[in-house]
Amino acid sequence: MNTLQYAILGILTYVSLNGYSLKKLFDRSINHFWHASLSQIYKELGELERNGYVTSSIQEQDDRPDKRVYAITSAGQEAFLAWLNRFPQPYASPKRDEFALRIFFGGRLENAVLRKHLEGFIEERQRFLEEMIEGKKKAYEILKEANLVEGSENRGMYFIRRRTEITTQALIQWARECLEALDEDKQYGGE
Amino acid sequence: MNTLQYAILGILTYVSLNGYSLKKLFDRSINHFWHASLSQIYKELGELERNGYVTSSIQEQDDRPDKRVYAITSAGQEAFLAWLNRFPQPYASPKRDEFALRIFFGGRLENAVLRKHLEGFIEERQRFLEEMIEGKKKAYEILKEANLVEGSENRGMYFIRRRTEITTQALIQWARECLEALDEDKQYGGE
DNA sequence: AGGGCCATGTAACCTGTTACATGATTGA
DNA sequence: TCAATCATGTAACAGGTTACATGGCCCT
């Protein structure tokens, strides 16, 4: 089983959902650290069902198209918990950050262009932070509606929200430092 | 052309290399924000050559296997610079961080297990930071040997090193905060 | 004697994206 | 009336990993 399948199972331990709603939930929270496209979700749901980790049933609706709602089985519960307890060693997974890659080659850019993109980055991350803090209550309502939070169960979700906040702030701080360094037109030698 | 191909071209703007050495260079620096496997590098080098962005020649060696050294063409230079100047909007690329995903579902874990993995995470990141600071000089020598730094050209590389330092410190700080919160056995409600 | 590094590649597979196909309802 | 949202899926392709295949040198 792949990671996306475990992520889906994880959500289904809280609430039964159809593919489309699952995708919406992803976009609103998990998305910041695990991205999934709709067609991929449909694929993985199909495989999860073929392997007996979930079952599905059609739920008819009058005004909207019928939907296929997925529920986790006991085999699914077991597989999910086994995965969750078995943390990977090492913890850091390989990253692919295109912005960092471009900055790495920043020596090949004119100062003005590099500045512009660092400024753009700061603006974007700042807006992202504001939206997150503003939308905190809203996000909580969504998770609550979906039964994803109740009592101390939301511990992990709180942790991850803090993590996004902290790392985003650190990145903004870093980009500002870079701009200052460009202002001073420093030379970066090897000690 | 995909991002890995641009990353390879970027290095080749500094120095001509064979696939194997390219992989080593990746592992020692770029790896932190753009991961590449050896077989993937060979594949992309083949495609870059078929498309006229690089040329290759066999360099014979007495004691070791011959190697195929790749050099960037003017078409390659142009394509790389065009990519570098054309920054993506938005800047943030979709992330896939399995550790974060597991913490997100931390409500399904026993406190003791969650603690253990947060502690493991802190240890690992701390060791990583120490190695990076310690190995700063060594890394610089490697990059210098490969002609990847000289004068102000290494600006971007310095920036990225700082970025790794800052974000890693932030993550360690975050994990410590989480442990404290677990100690206090807080309840995380919706405001 | 055996493991690790040097060195290049191929084949099979898995994961994920984009485009295509379809069509009803709701709100501006 | 026009765009967005709801809703499910398939097909083609792109990107990336793991295993396989081969073999010599160097150090312990």
Structural class of chain A: mainly alpha
In terms of quaternary structure, what is this? Answer: homodimer
Q: Strand-and-helix sequence of chain A, N→C?
A: HEHHEEHHHHH
Low-confidence stretches of chain A: none
Rg calculated over all Cα atoms of chain A: 21 Å
Name the beta content range of chain A: 5-15%
Strand order of the largest sheet of chain A: 1-3-2
Query: Span from first to last CA of chain A?
Result: 47 Å
Record keyword descriptors for this entry:
homodimer; DNA-binding; mainly alpha; 3-stranded antiparallel beta sheet; 8 helices
Quick recap of the structure?
By secondary structure, chain A is mainly alpha-helical.
Descriptive account of the structure:
Two copies of one chain form a homodimer. Chain A contains eight helices and three strands, in the order αβααββααααα. The N and C termini of chain A lie far apart (47 Å). In chain A, β2 (54-59) and β3 form a beta hairpin. Helices cover 61% and strands 7% of the residues of chain A. In chain A, α2 (19-28) packs across α3 and α6 runs antiparallel to α8. The relative contact order of chain A is 0.11. The first copy, chain A, has a three-stranded antiparallel β-sheet with strand order 1-3-2. Chain A is mostly helical. The mean pLDDT of chain A is 88. At the A-B interface, α1, α4, α5, α6 and α7 of A face α1, α4, α5, α6 and α7 of B. Chain A binds a DNA duplex (28 and 28 nucleotides) through residues 2, 4, 18-21, 35-40, 42-43, 46, 61, 63-68.
